[in-house]
């Protein structure tokens, strides 16, 4: 009996010892078990290795893309990075179901009216809600002779709202002179324009109320019939509205389209068609740059560098780890099923994988931390801090402040408010070195991140960690989860279109994707908007258990700050709805950055 009690006590002590070790937080210089730390880090380095992927391209295609400029990815996904069984089942079953749905319905050519009828009657495409793009199109009677002037203005505002709060929200910028691409069309644009309020474009530019979204650099020298640029203005001092679209602004004789609230559906069809083409090209930029290139790919290398250089006992490792959950495995899925030859991008998107990778490579080559990693720098450089209705901006800044406060308090505690402790932290310095080390096709390369500041003080470290966590959580969630809302109904935002934009088009159906392409996009977006992990600050128990009491106390405070933000956003949205007038253009509330809808990681 005594022997049994002794063994039970011994097992409990062993468990407590293991539990204590899992929760231990230490820097290398004060770790009492430095040899175990060293061995574990060596194991991690063997599992986590960076690789410049070639995406099964031919040698000629690799040279076209210049693949060394694409962000590096993990060489092989370790077992511990795989999804849980529950998450794997949801991911697999959802993908299989909508693939069968595509095979069942995705046949032949679909007219817009056929799409509308299908969305109205399909339970599976309306779960949990019908996509917002479909709701706006039908509610505002787009391309219908019964459409009222108010409905036309509302549909125009939705198009402008997408530039602020849709899937690509980081391109709109103030201009102080009219872009030259519109110089030849000033009189045409300004005559009887519904939203210029009697002012010329030059006067709006001087007043600071003229904005542009420029997608002209997406063509990458490819022969494509659309590389558009659009102008926007602030109407009635409160709503962003479209002014004009140059559908292929790289051509000297390109057509320019402008909105109108009068005339028949046929009279404004060319304008609606221009909106459709603009959104389709925006979709190519979104999936290439805003989404895949500069959340998924960019952060993949950061995670690899963390695992290779920070011990699992390091406090910054414990801080970052929840924000990389399931990221490597979804990136492997994207590489295999979406990017590589014959995948979704090649078959069912407008650009194709070569074009997409060329675009990512060029943007990554020019990427710098001070300019591109910070939402503050982005807003300031675009002079976008005072555009009304930019709710993404408002909510993102709230969340960025909360993340920064959390990271600052956390890091300051463990580094004892002493910059010298950061400078003497060998592991954190090695982490930075691999982040900035040039990329290489021959191995031993790093992420090649330009402009990462020296980790010579707590503030610089906090700034970098804040932006990494922000990109993994806030930026990715705002980029990813509205996708079904935007892409599901092709007239709102198509993944691909056919033929070319044509003012003389008799109807809008000729350019629409076929049934296979439409349901392929729906299937992909249904999978990509699955929620498989916890919301921001709500860390899984495994991550919390790995922290010490002080670390968990910082998390609890972070959660309280997020609860306040959640309440503020709800109050803002309630006020928007309450202030909308029956006979005026309505503002749309924005919910995608409610903290409960922001996930910790790029997990899907």
Notes on the protein architecture:
The protein is mostly helical. Helix content is 54%, strand content 5%. The N and C termini lie far apart (53 Å). The N terminus is likely disordered.
Q: Topology, pairings included?
A:
Elements: H1 2-23, H2 34-47, E1 50-51, H3 59-65, E2 73-74, H4 85-105, H5 112-121, H6 132-139, H7 149-165, E3 173-174, H8 186-190, H9 201-207, E4 210-214, E5 229-235, E6 239-246, E7 256-257, H10 265-309, H11 315-320, H12 327-339, H13 344-348, H14 353-365, H15 369-372, H16 375-382, H17 391-414, H18 419-423, H19 426-436, H20 458-480, H21 483-487, H22 515-528, H23 541-546, H24 549-579
Helix pairs in contact: 4-22, 10-14, 10-19, 10-20, 17-20, 17-24
Count of helices?
24
Distance between the termini: 53 Å
Q: Compute the CA-based radius of gyration.
A: 26 Å
Strand composition percent: under 5%
Key structural traits:
604 residues; mainly alpha; five-stranded antiparallel sheet; two-stranded antiparallel sheet; 7 strands
Short description:
This protein has 604 residues and is mainly alpha-helical. Helix content is 54%, strand content 5%.
